[in-house]
Give the backbone structure.
Amino acid sequence: MPGDASRAEFSAIPREPRLHLVLGPVGAGKSTFAERLARDHRAVRLTLDEWMTKLFSQDRPDHGVMDWYIERTVRCIEVIWTLATQMIDHDTNVVLEIGLLTRREREGFFERVETEGANLTTYVIDASRDVRRRRVEERNRARGSTFSMVVPPAIFDLASDLWESPDAAECEGRDVRFIRTDD
């Protein structure tokens, strides 16, 4: 049957879907980079901040915000990971922008990727703290395409202080690309 032949030809085309993990401190330009990366690789972009804002911003408590935030972040990342692996299994590239500020968080993520057998490229986006602070202030005012929530100065400082750039040991044997966005 003609339909079967074309299906066989299509399935013979090798595809290697890829996870693209975008990391960096707040205000480095991750969302802008991730949008472009998703376009360039015909990928689905999954962004933790968008999920957190749409799912939980109306329920944010006045006190105990960090514990509240962390617990919900863990739940969102679990669902995002499930979706990402399903997309990879269906030959779809995925761009993930899911936080992972510390080496410990990233090691857990890398173990999952290795268990899944997925191809991974990690992009570390960074800029000086002053440049990042100005960007966050402008994003808070303009609320453009990469805006998902207001980042107050105290949260900017907290998140900036938590950020641990990947070191040589973390990059060993992995496709990790460092990109400066200071200009």
